[in-house]
């Protein structure tokens, strides 16, 4: 059984290519733009959303058929056309150049998969079935979305702020660990869910002052 190595990639400023201009390509482009990637779309026809992004200068649109030269300087490639022969050509060209390529609806041709993702601010939870069943990954994602609600985004922001302050004020590594552990194991999530913000502030104060030296 082939095992996948899970990884989160920084795409800010990275050049990514999407070959195709339909709904699948649109979803890929939207996710890439969300992560700050520089995006090139190659397709004779594109959805209104892709055209609008191009008009706004958010991506480079090449309204023509795919050329091998489109791969120059790219980091990630998505083959997302509705023509298998084009997707196959893109894949072959990428593999010959050791490029990471994802092919829509053809998991065997991919050398990386895009997981189903839940985002709560800086918190990202990814679910993958290794291309075996995107529908199951989506179902699991929906279950997790109910478990990890919007309060987790608030919690992440709190943890980031406290961590920055603790790293500045607390020199002892063990004391830092205790503060972070105390916060994570506290009932702050439940308090945020119930919008009891005064209690949240009290928990943070207790955790910070209780262990600070």
Q: Could you give a quick summary of the protein structure above?
A:
The protein has 213 residues and is an alpha/beta fold.
Question: What is the CATH class designation of the largest domain?
Answer: Alpha Beta
The SSE string, one letter per element, is EHEHEEHEEEHHHHH
How many structural domains does the protein architecture include?
3
Most strands sheet: 5 strands, parallel
CATH topology heading of the largest domain: Rossmann fold
How many helices in DSSP terms?
Answer: 8
Share of β-strand residues: 5-15%
Structural class: alpha/beta
CATH architect. name of the largest domain = 3-Layer(aba) Sandwich
The tally of beta strands, per DSSP, is 7
- State the end-to-end CA separation: 51 Å
The CATH homologous superfamily of the largest domain is termed NAD(P)-binding Rossmann-like Domain
Mean pLDDT: 92
Strands of the widest sheet, in order across it, are: 3-2-1-4-5
Cα shape: elongated
GO molecular function: ferrochelatase activity; precorrin-2 dehydrogenase activity
Enzyme class: oxidoreductase
Pfam families: CysG_dimeriser, NAD_binding_7, Sirohm_synth_M
Pathway: Porphyrin-containing compound metabolism; siroheme biosynthesis; sirohydrochlorin from precorrin-2: step 1/1
Structure description:
Pathway: Porphyrin-containing compound metabolism; siroheme biosynthesis; sirohydrochlorin from precorrin-2: step 1/1. This is precorrin-2 dehydrogenase. It is an enzyme of class 1 (oxidoreductase). It is a single chain. The mean pLDDT is 92. It contains eight helices and seven strands, in the order βαβαββαβββααααα. By secondary structure, it is α/β, with parallel strands linked by helices. The protein folds into three domains: 100 residues, NAD(P)-binding Rossmann-like Domain (Rossmann fold); 34 residues, 2-Layer Sandwich (Double Stranded RNA Binding Domain); 61 residues. β1, α1 and β2 form a beta-alpha-beta unit.
């Amino acid at each position: 059984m082939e095992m996948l190595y899970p990884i989160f990639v920084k795409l800010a400023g990275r050049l990514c290519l999407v070959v195709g201009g339909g709904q699948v390509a649109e979803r890929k482009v939207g996710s890439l733009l969300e992560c700050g990637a520089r995006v090139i779309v190659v397709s004779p026809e594109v959805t209104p959303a892709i055209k609008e992004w191009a008009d706004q200068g958010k991506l480079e649109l090449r309204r023509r058929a795919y050329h091998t030269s489109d791969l120059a300087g790219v980091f990630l490639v998505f083959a997302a056309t509705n023509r298998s022969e084009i997707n196959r050509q893109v894949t072959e060209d990428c593999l010959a150049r050791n490029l990471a390529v994802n092919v829509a609806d053809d998991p065997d041709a991919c050398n990386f998969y895009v997981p189903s993702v839940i985002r709560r601010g800086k918190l990202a939870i990814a679910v993958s079935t290794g291309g075996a069943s995107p529908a199951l990954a989506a179902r699991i994602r929906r279950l997790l979305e109910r478990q990890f609600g919007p309060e987790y985004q608030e919690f992440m922001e709190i943890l980031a702020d406290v961590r920055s302050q603790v790293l500045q004020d607390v020199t002892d590594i063990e004391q830092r660990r205790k503060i972070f552990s105390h916060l994570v194991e506290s009932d702050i999530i439940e308090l945020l869910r119930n919008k009891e913000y005064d209690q949240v502030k009290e928990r943070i104060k207790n955790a910070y002052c209780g262990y600070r030296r």
